[in-house]
Amino acid sequence: MEKIFKNLNDSQSAAVKQTEGPVLILAGAGSGKTTTIISRLAYLIEVVGIPPANTLTLTFTNKAAREMKERSMAMMEKNGAYPPLLCTFHKFGLLFLKFNIHRLGRQNNFVVIDTDDKKRIIKKINSELPTPLIASEISRYKNSLMSPDDAYKQAELFNYKQIAEVYREYENHLKENNLVDFDDLIALTYKLLDENPELAQETSQKYQYIMIDEYQDTNELQLKLIQKLCTSHNNICVVGDDDQSIYGWRGAHIRNIMEFDEDFEGASVFKLEENYRSRAPILKTANALIEHNRSRLGKSLIATRGEGEDVAILNSNDENEEARKIALKIQKLLDSGVEASEIAILYRVNVLSRSIEEGLNRAGIGYKLVGGVRFLERAEVKDLISYIRVITNNHDDFSLKRIVNKPKRGLGKASVDKIELAAHAKGSSIFEYIKTVDFAELEALVKKKNATTLKKFIADIDDVARVAKESTYEFIDVLEDTFHLKDIYVNMQDGQERILNMDEFYGLFRDFIKNHPEASLDEFLNELTLQSEQDQVEGESIYMMSIHASKGLEFEHVFVIGMEEGFLPLVGDGSDLEEERRLGYVSFTRAKESLTLSHAGSRFYKGRRSDLAKSRFFNEAGLCDGSLIVEKKTAYKKGDLVRHKIFGTGRVTGVSKSGREFKLQINFAGTKRDILASFVERL
Ligand code: ATP
Ligand code: MG
């Protein structure tokens, strides 16, 4: 009990003790919201005596879930108990579907596909319309619980009728191959609970206390799911911050926070107003930025950690200089004893990570890329995954086609197409067809040599599948020995690296089986897919990740790169400046001790070098050179040398105040001019 309350303030303690009924904790960044819900979890289990299995705690990213689990377990004394379920929404959906998908007439050895697979399936169905558009529309349909029929009826434009058709075929493909996409993990879970009231009742009784972190990022479907989980009670505690809502593009709704009281009647509301994370200058900068948003509740947040370093601004000519400067700064931090895992580099768009990666590599600084170009999306790893998929589910034609000629077995695309047609004509999968068809019939379709190859390929898969059933651990060696997958890459230019990646994958597999001896292959695959969407293994290196992935996390030292117009804020079709500002706010508020904001004068992007303007967020956050002077009174003084974009170099001859800024009198080669301080650079 002491452990639970010793680090909480009065409002936090009150929220922890309010265990019954709906509770909303609404507060700014770093005010201890997450701390409060994990303390509440510990309180429920340790003090109130609720069995851990009767609680459910949900959040959005794997890394956040892992950290929350560790922190809550550390608060609990009775550690031997069955651990509470604390995971992401998607993981919860996965577990739920494992036990219940049979009610939809589907088997529970389904495979979860990632965004990459999804796009490939779509592209195969329709290569005319832009794949990303179809992908996001399908996602939108699923999140609005619209069937392909609904989508078709609702579509007015021809293109949208077409998209609805693709959606129909896509759904059929998933069902036929027993695949499930990310949206399904939530949508099907909801569907099952909605269509089976007794199941909703039972599930709700199982999870008597529900807690949700980052509630501002839930969408309508997630809210509906939560309501189903609350069928038999209303013990729901949510925490969130409207200023950190960064998933608007995915349908997240601040409405869910604003109208919590309507969705769950009789809610108690708690506010937390002290920030325990960031040094005062960091918080001040973040607060100044977010104040420019109009649609916000407007909460106050007071720094409790005292003064500290000013927010640093890093100016570079281009991304290479930026990478060098950041590597240098990080090396200094490491040399002074800062732990690598306490340093993070954040960016709005993933492509920005590349130049920094190079800089860190050159400096010999280890880093971990969270999300980004994913290990699992590399071709050689995808091949391995496809093998495992075919082994667990023979009917996965998509994966089978990927591997049937890898390593090369002399099978051309034409032969494979013929087989596919023949198989579909018989209403069977390619695998099934080759396995059951008479050799003579096969030979009539493709060359004899190919017919033999295909029969052998299928027999080999069957053999390996048998091993997998007996011993999952041995399976991976047998897979390599049977198909000689590494041979594919031996003579390739970057073969060595690819083989290393394969070895890493094999290692990952062995680790997983060691930790989950009872697990089957499809469980391994699903875990992998779920992890890959967000993050990778932990370790002794600094972190690099998108701002989206950094939500809820904190680091001693944070670098935000790409602070330029076009990158942060990202401007363009469908971008929302207020959401961009919230992203800025999220990124700034990850920092505890120091925050460095970096911008480059130009970047090589999309095949060409472009000049970039400094982000307006510097100005808004009160960080333009001019207002810095106002803040710090380290004003320009007579005699300072400055440079102006147009007038060139000059010397300050006088300083006066002009509104919130300072006005400088500058002598540019004999001509005196009055210029606002923010328009010049000190030399
Ligand atoms: P975010 O909005 O970024 O998700 P949060 O509100 O969830 O932030 P936490 O991550 O729970 O905030 O807490 C931020 C930091 O403050 C953590 O390091 C936590 O240990 C610390 N903290 C929380 N509450 C207190 C407290 N009452 N006293 C001292 N430190 C606290
Ligand atoms: Mg949090």
From TrEMBL:
CDD domains documented for this protein: DEXQc_UvrD (cd17932)
Q: Which reaction does it catalyse?
A: ATP + H2O = ADP + phosphate + H(+); Couples ATP hydrolysis with the unwinding of duplex DNA by translocating in the 3'-5' direction
Q: Which InterPro entries match?
A: DExx_box_DNA_helicase_dom_sf, DNA_helicase_UvrD-like_C, DNA_helicase_UvrD/REP, P-loop_NTPase, UvrD-like_ATP-bd
Q: Which family does it belong to?
A: Belongs to the helicase family. UvrD subfamily.
Which residues are recorded as binding ATP? Answer: 27-34
Q: Which Pfam families match?
A: PcrA_UvrD_tudor, UvrD-helicase, UvrD_C
Task: Report keywords, A-Z.
Answer: ATP-binding, DNA-binding, Helicase, Hydrolase, Isomerase, Nucleotide-binding
**GO CC terms on record?**
cytosol; DNA helicase complex
Tell me what this protein is called: DNA 3'-5' helicase
Q: Which BP terms from GO are recorded?
A: recombinational repair
Q: Which residues form the UvrD-like helicase ATP-binding domain?
A: 6-279
- Any keyword DNA-binding? yes
Kindly list the organism's lineage. Answer: Bacteria, Pseudomonadati, Campylobacterota, Epsilonproteobacteria, Campylobacterales
Any one Gene Ontology molecular-function term assigned to this protein's record: 3'-5' DNA helicase activity
Could you tell me which residue ranges the UvrD-like helicase C-terminal domain spans?
A: 280-552
Q: What is its EC number?
A: 5.6.2.4
